[in-house]
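Q: Focus on the shape:
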Amino acid sequence: MRKNSFSAKKSTRPERVFLKPSGNPLRDKCGIFGIYGKEVDVARISFFGLYSLQHRGQEGAGITVTDGKKLKSVKGLGLVSSVFDEEKINSLKGFASIGHTRYSTTGGNKLCNVQPVVLNLKDDVFALAHNGNIINAMDLAKTLPSQDKLSSTSDTEIMGWIIKNSKGKSWEEKVFTSFSQFQGAFSIIALTKNKLIAFRDSYGFRPLVLGELNGSYITCSETCALDTVGAKFIREVAPGEIIVIDEKGIHSLGKVRSIKKSFCLFEYVYLARPDSIFNKQLVHQVRQRSGEILAHESPVGADMVVAVPDSGTSAAIGYSKASGIPYGEVLIKNRYIGRTFIQPEQHIRDMGVRIKFNPLKEIVKGKRIIIVDDSIVRGTTMKKIVKMLKNCGAKKVHIRVCSPPVTDPCYFGIDTPDKKKLIASKMTVKEIEKFIGADSLAYLSLNGLKKASRVKSDELCTSCFDGKYPMPVAGGFRKDVFESEDTNLRMNPNQRISKFVD
């Protein structure tokens, strides 16, 4: 494998512990960022682009650049700010760059899985940064020739080798001819010696946008990253579209026919930053409208509307506006919770949700409170919040959720638990209400959420809410299938994969 400027040697340090007192397992797989520009510091701009996409993945980060002759990478586990420093950024010289922030779905949290993935080729170079999830990756791996040795346990590298082995004189032609083999969600930015290639699955599950910065061109997951680096938004990459960015500028190779557009509705609920725009809709305004609709669907008398920060804030503002009940802050969030090598003492772990949220006791006491949150997944975090507020003297605690019950797992890039771990798949709303100890509980209807999004109903993926997947998934995918020991990585792909098949 190409030697990058990171070491794959086994660390002797303690395993990283990620404090997740919120207990919310809904995480998007990745954020991706790419830039082509001869007169700018592409690595530095990529760093700040990734910094603004940190919410999409906190397990690892990487940047790969080209100088026209070779690719060079810096990758590491942890947050963007801990992986990169001035020395590493200055070592990445070139005119085009792709970057990645990772949260693992397929493939574990290991250094070998940190992206961008760089293929080990004798005659050429090719790198990929991927947001999404390929549900037929195991089957594709079985088709790889024996000489194609996998160096990671992620679906992204498999995609890279499939593209490399496909017909075509150029990389973009290979992307086009391989397109139909990939089942699932993929928004990808690829890097060759002299160009960027951006492409998005024909369903359009995950976002991908284009921007311009003083003659340089950018493609990335969200418009908030364009804002951060001072770039102007051009447009979204269309579902099924293949874009090439090189010294001639941006040009589209065309689109693979879209059978059914299926933009992830949960992007609006939780995953995206509120200042991003998808489908011409500002995420903050979608969330605010969802809170307004929820107030009309499920009114209740109270003294104050509060949010579970930060993803519930916009909806709480909308609920307050529609209901006429004042909005206020009750839960103060520690926004510096992140990765740490330090294992907390038992009594600190026992405090659970207090590591992340601390209530304003003087304001809570004697009040009837409506708490607005984006979703309830397992229910354990909300149960702790309700108990905490009642212990602080809250008279009533009503829960309002600005999305429908999450009843089914996602196979398209969100790391939801198995169905049996989703509380709404095994309990009624009344049973959940009793479990979390709330005085009342109500969810936004699916029709209400669709209305808030202002996207055509038949162009949204709602599978986590209704189990209606836009493509067959039953029995065809295991998220842990690529979890292997390092020794297995040296096997022939057919041998390696067969070890994991039941």
About this structure: The mean pLDDT is 86. The radius of gyration is 23 Å. Residues 283-297 form the longest helix (15 residues). The domain at 17-259+479-498 is CATH 3.60.20.10 (Glutamine Phosphoribosylpyrophosphate, subunit 1, domain 1).
